[in-house]
Amino acid sequence: MNHEELKEILVEQLKDIYSAEKQLTKALPKMAQAATTKQLSGGFEEHLKQTKGHVQRIETILEELGENTKGPVCKGMEGLVEEGSEVIEDDELEGEAKDVALIAAAQRVEHYEIAAYGCVRAYAEQLGMDEAASLLEQTLEEEKQTDQKLNQISQTLIENADMGTEGGPQGKTGRKTRAARA
To answer: Can you give the pTM of this predicted structure?
Structure first.
């Protein structure tokens, strides 16, 4: 593969990530509102601010490459956002169970983004685009930190969960969660 082919792939992937991040700027406020704990709600709000910064970084890189942000909708993120919406709309999930399910959906998003940013950072490095690689590395590290924070919140919720008399996690109403019923 030559330099120009790799650059084309980089641009294509940046546009895909841009679409993904723009979708997240719409999804994160809904997730924050659906969260039942202040810690998780605040975490989603904090990540929304970061995500807006991620959008700006991609815009900067694409501008420096003489490219615009227009591209196809990121289908991968579209599916992940839809899964998160299903959790939000699930009336059977309450309290900690709802939050743990929201975290699972959010972590799938984070892992998708970590993979995407790892690739584009490597492409930028290979192309000698040091400034772009640095911006992408900064975003990659923020995505990893968000994933770690979600892990911590999830662990705390699980440890603090009311373990009902049947030995399974229960929501506020005492009903077993879907996962516990399975």
So the answer is: 0.85
What share of the chain has pLDDT > 90, as a percent?
81
Least trusted range by pLDDT, from 34-48, 73-87, 150-164: 150-164
* d(C-alpha 177, C-alpha 171), whole Å: 6
- Contact status, residue 60 vs residue 114, Cβ threshold 8 Å: no
Contact (CB, 8 A) for 37 and 99: yes
Asked if 17 and 120 touch (Cβ cutoff 8 Å), the reply is yes
The CA distance from 67 to 52, in Å, is 19
Exposure of 24 in the CB half-sphere (CA atoms within 13 A): 31
Strand, helix or coil for residue 146? helix
Predicted confidence at residue 163, as pLDDT, reads 53
Residues 6+ apart with CB under 8 A from 97: 169, 170, 171, 177, 179
3-state secondary structure of 163: strand
Q: How far apart are alpha carbons 114 and 158 in whole angstroms?
A: 25
Q: From CA 115, how far away is CA 110, in angstroms rounded? A: 9
31 touches 84 (CB < 8 A): yes
